[in-house]
Design goal:
The protein is mostly helical. The protein has six helices and four strands. It has a two-stranded antiparallel sheet with strand order 1-2. A two-stranded parallel sheet has the order 3-4. Strand 1 and strand 2 form a beta hairpin. Helix 5 runs antiparallel to helix 6. The radius of gyration is 19 Å and the shape is elongated.
Length: 118
């Protein structure tokens, strides 16, 4: 496997979004299955608005999807407040959430205050 393929695999686990509409539309059901295309690829390639369930942040293929938790400001504020009283418990609670996402931050997001001892 070449360097370019390694980089694509590392940073773009799923590049179906890059397929042009004419390619997606020309595929038979068997062709789509062979390429393991998810249902949302047809809509994306054809400029359709995504369905609500397609907007849930996640990573991985359909057979091994790992949910990504988007940490809201209020949830983080609650965790931060409780962290001052029980840092170890909150640290483990955040770790159990799995990959945490926050718009505009490096993924996975790890709150800076979690590394601080009260």
């Amino acid at each position: 496997m070449g360097l370019v393929h390694c980089l694509v695999d590392a940073f773009f686990a799923d590049t179906d979004f890059a397929l042009p509409a004419d390619v997606v539309n020309a595929l038979s059901g068997g062709g789509k299955a062979m390429l393991v295309l998810e249902g949302g690829v047809f809509g994306l390639a054809n400029g359709l608005a995504p369905q609500r369930d397609e907007l849930v942040p996640r990573r991985g293929r359909a057979d091994a999807v790992e949910a990504i938790v988007e940490l809201s400001d209020s949830h983080e504020a609650d965790l931060c407040r409780r962290h001052q009283a029980a840092p170890d418990a909150v640290w483990h609670e955040v770790a159990e959430l799995g990959p945490v996402y926050r718009a505009g931050e490096v993924f996975p997001f790890w709150p800076e205050w979690l590394g601080q001892v009260p």
